[in-house]
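Researcher: Next entry in the queue.
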Amino acid sequence: MFIKPKIKREIYLDHAATTYCSPEVVAAMLPYFTEVYGNPSSLYHKGREANGVLNDSRRTVAKLVNALPENIIFTGGGSESDNLAIYGVARAHESRGKHIITTTIEHHAIIHPLEDLQKQGWEVTYLKVDEEGFVKVEDVVKAIRPDTVLVSVMYANNEVGTIEPIADIGREILKYRKENNTTYPFFHTDACQAAGYINLDVEKLHVDLMTVNGSKMYGPKGVGMLYVRRGVRLKPLIVGGGQERRLRAGTENVPAIVGFAKAFELAQQQIESESKRVGDLTAFMWKELQEKIPKLKLNGPELGDRRLPNNLNVTFIDVEGEAMLLYLDEYGIMCSTGSACTSESLDPSHVLLAMGLPYEYSHGSLRFTFGHCNSKKDVEYIIKYLPDVIKQLREISPVNMGNVKHAKYKK
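Model: Structure for this entry, 411 residues:
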């Protein structure tokens, strides 16, 4: 029988899926729902007031990524920004070439638009990653062709926390352009998971386009940005008005944009302290898991500088991930089996499969991602009950592993 907690706690460990709005962000947003509510495109004083706030937010965000305000396009979230980057470049530059490079572990907001473009005659090169989720810089360079118009590589993986060598890739792309006297290919990175833990200076990263959203850094949902370097032409996804440099029609969501700017500002200010704090929690939990539960495998890089500090993705061998989620939820523990965007799918993680994990191992993985609301007491609570959950699930519903062999687990 499972041990029932005397006092059931609520522990949220899915910050890679979404975060709550921080009180500072909510406070910053409130006046723009009921007081400064004008349309930023209107010429009367309420509109001019809203436009001033919009411009202030744009300047704040631009400064955080070392860009110019006119380089920032506000959108309806990370997926829209990714779509605008992919479709925008493709439609604006298809006369130059119809080849795009990406990796096998990108978010579906990148993969699905690329699959759609393939149906329209585009060629896409999907670069393989190693067993830790890293793409090789030299593989990116080797894949570039005269007709390549875009390279898109995510900064930090949402499932296993792998931090890709974006600056190195960007530097090599710049070198290729110079040697071949061309402005192509453009370089895009999805930095949604990186915003609260890594500096996003676009000049140091050498990127032409960068995606960030609000809901991963204690800001509001439904708002994001796409950084677009000067000189990069895009075709808009949404037309009907001249907003956002004619790249995103529609009245701007001023409260959400204010909240996004405030959340981004706070996230960048707290990078060092918060990375240390959640990194310690992640390390503590991994140590406890290894001591209390047999047959484990850490997915992604070893804990350290090459991995997001709040990410712990673990395969519990011989257990179904969905079963673990349901039982943990009974204890008030919330985590995920992979990307939140595919949580309704029973298919194993495309990221883990791309890293070479067997199908059965991919099905038995859980992703724990720490955040502001977590403490050491949360880890102690989880460790008190999780080992028994795993033990019981292995006994009552063992997964048939067949002859699958994998050396990297704790015996």
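Model: The longest helix spans residues 271-292.
Researcher: Noted, moving on.
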